[in-house]
Design a protein that fits this description.
- By secondary structure, this protein is of the alpha/beta class.
- About 45% of the residues lie in helices and about 10% in strands.
- A six-stranded mixed beta sheet has the order 4-5-3-6-7-8, sandwiched between helices. Strands 1-2 form a two-stranded parallel sheet.
- Helix 4 runs antiparallel to helix 5 and helix 5 packs antiparallel against helix 7 (about 125-165).
- The longest helix has about 40 residues, at about 125-165.
- The two termini are about 35 Å apart.
- About 35% of the residues are buried.
Length: about 350
Amino acid sequence: MAQLATTAGAEVVGGVSQRVVRPQRSYLGKGKLEELADLADRHQASVVMLNDELTPAQQRIVEDAVQVKVIDRTALILDIFAGRALTKEGRLQVELAQHEYLLPRLAGQWSHLERLGGGIGTRGPGETQIETDRRLVRGRIQHIERELEKVMRRRAQYTERRKKSTVPIASLVGYTNAGKSTLFNALSSGGVLVQDQLFSTLDPVTRRVRLPSGAPLLLTDTVGFIQKLSPTVVAAFRATLEELSQSDILLHVVDITHPKAAEQAQVVEDILDDLGLAEKPRVLVANKMDLIKDDAGAPSIPDLDPGRSVKISAAKGWNLDQLLQRIETTLMNVDGPLTFVSTTTGS
């Protein structure tokens, strides 16, 4: 959450946490809300960010308690996405997610009317304005959905042309900031933006690379995944995520240096399963091995056996030839069992 806040341009000055057995109407308990309000006041915080998607009622309760702007996890991720989207498709997808997120929260935008006192001349116009805003937002959502349908049709036509060319397609997937874009550039000289930040790549990019046999391969860099990704966000990016379903093989890139590498890898596997891609052939790519002094220093990934992975350093260019060979071997045996190869690093 702190990484997300920093990526959005915020300066983190403090934080609180609470283990909650069951969902609460106020999101946090009364005592924890008071602690949060005191923390925000002492640090003169301008915004409070919460690590879940709040209901409109929860957001209003927390805002009343802390007396500063409150942003939940979904709004924060969408704010980051809005600054990352470069293509028309990406901007449409972000705007769609933002409008769908805003629609049930419109009533809160007019809570200032309640403070004017007296129902005469306030309640009626307030309700009218809310309904007007809702119609405008729904109309905008429908317009964006129609535009995205056009994009998806064009993408489908492009995919059909690619299938007719018989050139296999590989897509990079993984937790955000795992090094997918660095690997993409190393394999394809793609020139994709690389930053040590979450979601540095939002729009999918495809480049042609050569396999060891000389055969061509289309390689696609995609948006990174993250835990607790809102269904609203996933649904909005269905056009982008459909790119994965058209792939012949997925390259699951894992930041092997991260202390929670196993958890991050499982988050990606769970999302792929939710997208109906659990049976898609894949290669596990253990990245950033140049930062590991020896294999004993690499964290264990129980559900994705690291002993059967391709260990690389995208930044240093280590073992990329072994990775390309594993991709080619997997594509040649796509109808058979998928196996992984273990390699050692070298300088």
